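INFO  loader      accepted 1 record
INFO  loader      residues=510
INFO  predictor   begin
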Amino acid sequence: MAVSRIANASRAARHEAITERCASLESAFPGKTFSSTDQENLYQNEVASYFSVQDRLRPSCFVTPTNTKDVSKVVTLLSQGSCKFAIKAGGHGLPVGASNIAEGVTIDLVRMNDVTLSADKTTAAVGPGAKWGQVYNVLDAQGYAIPGGRAGGVGVGGLTTGGGNSFFASRYGFVCDNVKNFEVVLGSGEIVQANNQTNPDLFTALKGSSNNLGIVTRFDIVAFKQGNLWGGMATYNSSKTREQIRAIVSFTDKVAKNPFGSLISLWTYLKGVEGVSITNLYEYTGAGGELGLGVLPEFEDFAPTSPIGAPLKDTLRSANLSSLTGELNAPPELSNLYATLTFSNNETVLNGVVDILSDELQKYKDHDFFVYASIQFQPLPRIFVEHSLERGGNVLGLERNLDNNVFVEVFLLDLAWSGAQNDAKNYQVADEVIGRLQKYARSVGGLKEFQYLNYASQSQDPLGGYGPEALNKIKAASTKYDPGQVFQKLVPGGFKLADAGKKAPLPGSV
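INFO  predictor   done
INFO  writer      dumping tokens
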């Protein structure tokens, strides 16, 4: 009883302290701070703005700064009061709590969404709260583009600090590698710039470290002329799984020779539907894309005359980035779970992966908690890494594996997941499936350490997967630029440095 009373008293004191911080924020930022007691409608809009239903936590208050000085003041107020907080950019990222918090303050950067092309048109200044669809709408109108997200509803901040893949990765590398300058608010509230000349160690460490070092309030990203792309979705006969894998492997091996092509192969398992639906997402970023699948050398392995055959249906067309990224958004109002692994680009390995997934997901397809799941094969060829090294490097650690890789993204999306009663079961399924895949891929020499942070589940260890050298760069930057360890102690969400390399193996993975 005494222990219970002490715990209750501690919770009450903590709640009171957070409430006081929210009151201070409301006083400092009237019209920009929302609590459930005073602005229920505005507060509820903030809660509902998260992509995944289970991430719609209810913090003590939301604060929505409009500029970097606002962010600096917010961080100072919160750190001085030792108040825990979360940082939201687009609200698309997982795992749960990565950009929201149940007991604390959520800083929502949604109002910091400006997109400005520089006078010389070599860079675009982008606010962290912008979504990629907003970015492309602005730049499409001017005939320019930047490397960015492939789904228009994803936010700029999380994708870029987590690495970021794009349709242009074979030409320019990861999104983070194309940032020329970060404007950052540190744990002390200090505003700094990070680039090749100023704070270069912070500059490198920000490219893959997520929310561990500070709040990025502006990204200056390389811009280039860009007209319409050619691309869209093409759905295929599900009996051609082996042929699809062969084409994916061949495409990945040849990307360096034909860097204008981008591929995502999406395999969907639907509740009550036998087999798998295979949809390939093709994008061609060069001129002449209207020639199509049968002519473009980038996609010769997917030509209608190839073993995989012609698509059963498609949306292939010439269109701008706004249009093409608009069709890649996942359905809203669902609970979502991501998990990821990286495999060698090898037919045998990937066919084994597909066999295991078909076996595992078949077990769950008819359960009430399951509606559909999808997996994605996304090429990760060495040319991505070469572009990274040319631009000064990042902390993803991929230079350790300069062969061709394919990283697999495993989504488990439960359309019937209307409440928390199904959360635990879905996480269990994901852990079991990923554990079995890890064990198999390791046994055939096809498993890589890298786990793409933006797709990792809460059970995974993407920072540990970067390797000791890269991880030490992030830790050194954390010690130097955040000596009070604000972003380790007061920002509990996401993947933290203290946990890197220490997570227990998933069930069945060893």
